[in-house]
Design a protein that fits this description.
By secondary structure, this protein is of the alpha/beta class. It has two domains: about 150 residues, Orthogonal Bundle (Arc Repressor Mutant, subunit A); about 140 residues, Rossmann fold. It is built from 14 helices and ten strands. A five-stranded parallel sheet has the order 3-2-4-5-6, with helices on both faces. The chain has a three-stranded antiparallel sheet with strand order 7-1-10. Strands 8-9 form a two-stranded antiparallel sheet. Strand 8 and strand 9 form a beta hairpin. Helix 3 packs antiparallel against helix 12, helix 5 crosses helix 8 and helix 10 packs across helix 12. The mean pLDDT is about 85.
Length: about 300
């Protein structure tokens, strides 16, 4: 079920959309995603910390990668799935990376993130002081490396039996997010940062009301002269789903922008009317769309 915008006879409207993205948006300078690594058991620190953040740190998006990884692997990307590449992409998008070394996977992630300086700079390592000796592998290796470059240093010694999660939240807030914006510039796809691309993808979905990966790819090929990586777009969309910035709907692979989450792009002065006119034109176009498409759009409008 293709989006009506990419159908025959809509070239003029697509050109208006492309022009809006080329000229009409500003982008916030920093992400609000916090990537959390650790165990999966109900009593592990990671799920407990995420639950704490739902109540006490609502201005950040807490991201656990499992759901997004499943979404990527099920979606038939044009390149093999590589968990290291995926986690590096998540790291690029994150404001901070919180690691609780409490399970085999998180032990590996500690070493992996420590080895990549750009990711180590964003890492907050929360060790269980009841278990980690000063001469342990993590203390002597990854923790030392992370401490040498992290913006959030030093390593947090946390009592896993009675954790003070507010200490981690304080560290996250210690590095201030830049709330000001800059003009969005659409460069070559390969020159766009993961953060810029994720913001563009999110706004495409907002403009279109609902969209599939194929719909997003169609427009992005117009933005970037066809030189677009399906695998990267799919991974970024899956990360946005994992962060609950995009929500899956229906049985055809559609997503819509969560109205409860902040947008990364804002319309520049003088372009708000253009955005509204495009949305009005799309609304008129949807009146002649397939019945199933109309039902999905109605569900999204009801969710607003």
């Amino acid at each position: 079920m293709h989006h009506p915008l990419i159908g025959d006879g809509q070239l003029a409207l697509r050109k208006r959309v492309i022009s809006l993205f080329q000229n009409g948006f500003s982008i916030k300078r920093a992400s609000n995603i916090v990537f959390v690594c650790g165990g999966n058991e109900a009593t592990d620190m990671r799920p407990l910390f995420c639950a704490y953040c739902d109540q006490h740190m609502t201005d950040f998006e807490i991201f656990m990668p499992e759901g997004a990884m499943e979404n990527v692997m099920a979606g038939g990307a044009d390149e093999p799935f590589d968990i290291a590449d995926f986690e590096e992409l998540v790291g690029e998008l994150s404001h901070a990376i919180v690691i609780f070394p409490e399970a085999p996977g998180s032990f590996a992630e500690t070493g992996y993130f420590a080895a990549i300086e750009a990711l180590a700079q964003k890492t907050i390592l929360a060790l269980d002081f009841n278990r980690q000796r000063h001469d342990s592998f993590i203390s002597l290796g990854p923790a030392k490396k992370i401490n040498s470059v992290s913006w959030f240093q030093p390593t947090i010694q946390l009592d896993y039996s009675n954790p003070r999660f507010e200490d981690i939240v304080e560290r996250i807030r210690r590095v201030r997010r830049h709330h000001n914006s800059k003009t969005l510039q659409l460069k070559a796809f390969s020159e766009m940062t993961a953060y810029e691309l994720s913001a563009v993808i999110h706004e495409i979905v907002r403009v279109m009301s609902i969209a599939t990966v194929d719909d997003v790819m169609y427009l992005m090929r117009g933005f970037f002269n066809a030189h677009v990586s399906l695998g990267k777009v799919q991974k970024l969309m899956s990360i946005l789903v994992g962060a609950k910035s995009l929500i899956e709907i229906g049985d055809y692979g559609h997503v819509y922008a969560n109205p409860q989450k902040e947008t990364l792009l804002t319309t520049r002065e003088g372009f708000q009317g253009v955005w509204s006119e495009i949305r009005l034109s799309l609304g008129e176009l949807y009146l002649g769309a397939e019945v199933d498409f109309q039902k999905l759009v109605e569900e999204v409008h009801d969710a607003d």
